[in-house]
Each structure stands twice: as C-alpha cells, then as structure tokens.
Specification:
Radius of gyration: 19 Å
Number of helices: 9
Oligomer: single chain
Number of strands: 0
Largest sheet: none
Structural class: mainly alpha
Strand content: under 5%
Distance between the termini: 11 Å
Shape: globular
C-alpha cells in the first residue's frame, strides 16, 4: 500500500520511466505517452499531488478516485488479489501454486526450491541462493509501519485489514 501511494504521488523520474518504456511496443508509444502526459497534468492540478490513475484498474475504480489515497491503494491491492485468485481457480489445481509474501521472505531458498519442483526444474542450490540473495524478511509489514494512524484506522475499519505492527498477514 505505501509503495503504491509513493507511485501515485511521485515526481517524474526519467530513469524509472525509461526503464519502463523500453518494454513498450513502438506502436503503443503514442497511446502511453498521451496517458503519461494526462496523468502528470492531472497531478499538477490535484491538491494532494496525486496522479489521475496509477496501477491496476478495476471495475468501479472511478467511484473510488476521491477516497483517501491509502484506501484507494488498499482497494487496488485487494481487487488484484481477488481477481488473480478468481482467475486461477478456473485452472486445474496442478497448474498453479500460491504462497504468501511472508512465506517467501521467511524461507526464500526453500520456497524457490518448491517453485522449481512445481515447474519441473532442477535448479542447483547455488542458482537458488543467487536468486534469493537480496530477499529480506525485514520488509514484511513495512506498509503497516509507514502508514499514519488515520490511514491505519481507515484500512482497519473500511477494509477489515489488520494494520497492527505485529500483524503480518493481510
């Protein structure tokens, strides 16, 4: 939630933008350039310095755009998770696996080994260790600690999210 809030209100970061642009098909560039400019102009006019839209869009999102930013970001997260779970449930269970961020950061090498087995890959212990060398459990719950008291209360009451510092499940 807090990292999404930062993106909604971020200043133009040319380096970040260019990293993203390189993945765009050239034919899509005019469309996204126009949206980028619209968003940035909207951000300049918005009293909170918020872009018009950022991140995953969901049905009914336009009705949420006037909500506090923490609530909007939490709804984006919540809807994205729900949509992914709904879509995955249409697939045979043997075609997908689910685990939490907390599980992954608690035991990154073991979880990567499970992912490898699930995919039918025989990754070496060294390749697994290299892949997870920067994974840290200390990041779990950062979003809760970075919210102010008002936003924490809002998310707890409106979305039923546990925003206590010691509660790491979402």
């Amino acid at each position: 939630t807090t990292s999404a809030m930062q993106r909604w209100t971020s200043k133009v970061d040319l380096s970040y933008t260019l990293k993203k642009v390189r993945y765009l098909p050239p034919s899509d560039l005019p469309f996204y350039a126009f949206r980028f400019l619209q968003n940035r102009l909207s951000q300049r006019r918005n009293r909170e310095g918020r872009m018009a839209v950022w991140g995953p869009r969901f049905s009914g999102m336009n009705d949420c755009l006037n909500q506090p930013l923490a609530e909007l970001c939490a709804r984006q997260w919540q809807r994205s998770i729900n949509k992914a779970r709904h879509d995955l449930s249409a697939l045979p269970a043997e075609r997908w696996m689910e685990f939490s961020y907390e599980e992954f950061t608690a035991q990154p090498a073991a979880m990567m080994e499970q992912v490898g087995r699930f995919l039918g890959e025989d990754w070496t212990p060294k390749s697994i260790e290299d892949a997870v060398v920067n994974v840290r459990a200390s990041s779990v719950g950062n979003w809760k600690r970075k919210l102010n008291a008002e936003d924490r209360e809002l998310l707890a009451s409106e979305l039923g999210m546990d925003t206590r510092d010691d509660a790491c499940s979402s």
